[in-house]
Design goal:
Blueprint lengths: L1 H22 L8 H6 L6 H12 L2 H14 L4 H24 L8 H4 L4 H32 L5 H48 L9 H5 L9 H14 L4 H9 L3 H18 L1 H12 L10 H9 L2 H33 L9 H19 L7 H25 L5 H20 L5 H19 L18
Helix pairs in contact: 1-8, 1-15, 3-8, 3-11, 3-12, 3-15, 4-7, 4-13, 5-10, 5-11, 5-12, 7-15, 7-16, 7-17, 8-15, 8-16, 10-17, 11-15, 13-14, 15-16, 17-18, 17-19, 18-19
Amino acid sequence: MNESLLFYATITIFGIIYVGLALLPRKQIKNKTDYFLAGRNLGVMKATCTLIATQLGAGLLLGTSQDAYQMGLYSLLFTFGISIGLIILGCGLAGKLRALQIVTTTQIFEKKYHSDFLRKIASLLVTFTLCGILVGNMVASKTLMHSLGFENDFFFALFWLFIIVYTMIGGLHAVVLTDLVQVSFIVVVFIGITLYSLFSSPHSFSFTMLEAIQKNFSGQLPDASDLVNILLMPALFALFEQDLAQIFFASKTKTVATVTAIITTIFMLTFGLIPIYLGMQAKLIGLQVATGHSPLLEMVKHITGEFMVVMVACGILAAIASTADALLCAIGANLTQDFSFSFLGLSPVFESKTVTFTMGILVFGASYFMPKNVITILVSSYAIPVSILLIPIVAAYFMPHVHKYAGFGGAIGGVSGLIAFYFFPFPFHSLITLLFSFIGYIIGHIIQPAHPHPSPTPDAVATEK
């Protein structure tokens, strides 16, 4: 009973703090740029904390620990995949994104390919993926609550309603301010529990004996094709992922965007080992984890008292919230920037808030119909937009002139690959689908009329009504 009260009290305190922080910048929000990009004024500290927070979600904490319990060191692939994407961003792509002076990554299709149709299709695909990632976080939060004994869906619904409301109130300003609190709490709690585990556990765990350790995991491993997907899909989607790109778009300068990506990469490669270590430890010491429960939380229960279990649970929920609010903000930006909602007759800011709130409620309802493995949900969500959009978007980043037919060709090639391999499954189909997209892009480039429309100047696409 005392543990339940502590848990509710801690979440309530955080809730009051978050809503208060979301209300603080309300006078600064005068248009959509203020709402979705915080006035394009983020410095290194705020941008870095927000970027880290977008990655410290269900996949990194609960998903990788669940995979670590089942397949050991292969669970590193998801963390490495995210880190590879961040490394590429840190090597200059983040700066290129900031220099584009756009609000959503899908606006590239109008800015560079001069195709409003492609922009809208791309926006729907990216929005679908962001919703899938948000669903994964919702499913993970339910798994966590069940592990704590909270089987009643009332608190689950209340928790997500709270996240949707404070994100709706303050937009990216609210996301940035709450992330500063969330990241600090998460880092302190998880580093503390890891150090305690390392020094108190009777089971010897040595990274110099990785091969011997791996033999203790008898679970059936995914095939090589699935393992490649777990590594590559997060890395490739990061190159145009709206919730990441939105932070770069909101940065003060190209330099701030680049430094932010580099710092976040270093953090991910180190902090990301913690849930994997705890998940493997749970298996190595023989902990039995019930279906639908988290091995990470079971391990914490085993090595500490109830107080630390509650703190870790609150830390995980804070991590989920820190990812979810960025996703909600990105979903709202994608829809309101790429589609017209003028029929609602609302002011631009209130329209943005309405769309953000509505999408949050719809995604929450969808979470009841999804599978329970978090990594499976996330990787499946990444696959469709990567297959269809990656080649045209990356070409637009680096080529001074791109052609509409090439953009259409790349998208059609990716769709063809997805359809073909849906009916005729083949190993490494994700890589072959990307090859289809590349071939389609080249064909489109070749058949483009001799005098394509020139690329516009950097401020050609208006991002603010």
